[in-house]
Design goal:
about 150 residues, 7 strands, alpha/beta, two-stranded antiparallel ribbon, Glutaredoxin, five-stranded mixed β-sheet
């Protein structure tokens, strides 16, 4: 097992090598490029510009909340997803994909309803679920779905 992982900086999209042991700590390090924290700022906005770096190049699983401003259930899910980021990071990166602002990226995953949660690892979809849910249910779903990926 490799003792470090590649982690994408949410600010400058630079890949950083982070020791696995450091990912067990709340403050999992700073970017070697821009010097800003790698975690702790909540979900990262996912765009066509940073998708490849966040979804395909880093070793961490990426949990994506696909949403739209006009969607009531999406607005209900937003604070839950924010809370989840503080409990799941730094072992899992969380991101928000605005389906209205990034229709081509949302279309890549054939999103048919929102909110939709996608769990991605190294660019491929591992799991998906649709609909708003309370924090305990969200955490249970993510931990169950991500367990095989995190064990690898």
């Amino acid at each position: 097992m490799n003792d470090s992982l590649l982690v994408t900086c949410p600010h400058c999209a630079r890949l950083n090598r982070v020791p696995r042991a450091k990912l067990q700590q709340p403050a999992a390090g700073k970017c070697g490029g821009c010097g800003r924290p790698l975690f702790g700022n909540g979900p990262v906005p996912l765009t066509s510009r940073n998708f490849e770096a966040l979804a395909a190049k880093q070793d961490l699983p990426l949990l994506v909340d696909v949403w739209a401003e006009w969607c009531g259930p999406c607005r209900m899910m937003a604070p839950v997803f924010e809370q989840a980021s503080h409990q799941l990071e730094p072992r899992i990166r969380l991101a928000k994909l605005d389906s209205e602002a990034e229709p081509e990226l949302a279309g890549r995953f054939a999103i048919r309803s929102i909110p939709t949660l996608l769990l991605l690892h190294r660019g491929r979809e591992v799991a998906r679920t649709a609909g708003a849910m309370p924090l305990p249910q969200l955490l249970a779903w993510v931990r169950t779905q991500a367990a095989p990926v995190l064990a690898a």
